[in-house]
Amino acid sequence: MNATTLVTPRQALAPAQRAVDLIGTDLTEKSLKLHLEGLPGVDAVGLEQRAAGLGTRSIKTTSKAWALDTIIKLIDLTTLEGADTPGKVRSLVAKAVNPDPSDPTTPRVAAVCVYGDMVPAAVEALGSSWSNGKDDGINVAAVATAFPSGRASLPVKLADTADAVANGADEIDMVIDRGAFLSGRYGLVFDQIVAVKEACRREDGTYAHLKVILETGELNTYDNVRKASWLAILAGGDFIKTSTGKVAPAATLPVTLLMLEVVRDWHKLTGERIGVKPAGGIRSSKDAIKYLVTVAETVGEEWLQPHLFRFGASSLLNDVLLQRQKLTTGRYSGPDYVTID
User: How high is the pLDDT of residue 136?
Assistant: First the structure.
């Protein structure tokens, strides 16, 4: 079956090796649904209590500088507005490369995240920042598949993805069809993720990394978040991401903890490491540190690397820079000492 073909309950699903390895060669709509619906239910009270407890953990002053620098290194610096222009993207890239011009020791962010049509501007700006070409330390991420709604035909979603990859995107942030998922059409969602993953293939045979956005604020229950996380991983996602940032609630600590637990369980089962990206609503260093603690306590500090954990944010960086300046000078510099995005 072609990877772009949608499934009916009696058709075999498009091949995704992870799913075949776990479920078996009889990978069908029925077998996939049985696997997902056989996952244990989420203890909502216990999950929220664990998240609340982790959120109260403090970081000693001696570790705060490390935490702030780590947050910066994990940020996908984002602009996803209808009024975005090439000039705004160039400014965003300049900030990504040099977040604090007054302090050259400030680390760079992990990536800049833009709409697909802004990818060429981001790639060009990164290329012009360094005499030896594009800065290998900063990736270009593009949202695709009719972001943020996901309401488009599969050929349109695939063209959206392929165009961004052809223009130089290193990472693709796709959205799942929440309507299909909520109506139990898991095979359709699975098949679309597989097809988008294939559309991430470059001419040299390598793939842009695929982040699968679940839009957890629309999934209604923790059980659905767990099922969607497993589905996205089985279909080939390199990251599972909470939100588009366009729907409330966006990222929350309990939901991120749940997704980290799925990633932990997947690693125990297969030895493979999958990334997690909370996005939307994380604006302060204090909140971001709670996420660092949750990652370290759930999957281990080895996940605190850009290829395994990201913050999707636009305003978070400014607060981190202000906190970082305070550690250096002993006082807050004020918002005029950071750029307005």
Answer: 53
- Catalytic residue among 134, 241, 290, 319, which? 241
pLDDT of residue 339: 59
277 is known as an active-site residue: yes
User: Which residue's entry shows tokens 């125990």?
Assistant: 268
* Sheet arrangement for strand 111-115: 275-277, 239-241, 209-213, 171-175, 139-143, 111-115, 75-78, 311-313
241 assigned to active site: yes
Report yes or no: 199 and 214 within 8 Å, Cβ to Cβ.
no
Domain 17-337: CATH architecture, name and number where available: Alpha-Beta Barrel (3.20)
For the entire predicted model, the pTM comes to 0.91
DSSP secondary structure code for residue 212 in this structure: E
Condensed to tens digits (0 to 9), the pLDDT of residues 259-280 reads: 999 999 999 999 999 999 999 9
Instruction: Kindly name the residue from 76, 100, 170, 173 that is annotated as catalytic.
Output: 173
pLDDT at 166 over 90: yes
Q: Which of 238, 277, 290, 319 is catalytic?
A: 277
Domain ranges of the chain: 17-337
What is 261-316 written as a DSSP string? Answer: HHHHHHHHHHS---EEE-BSS--SHHHHHHHHHHHHHHT-GGG-STTTB-EEESSH
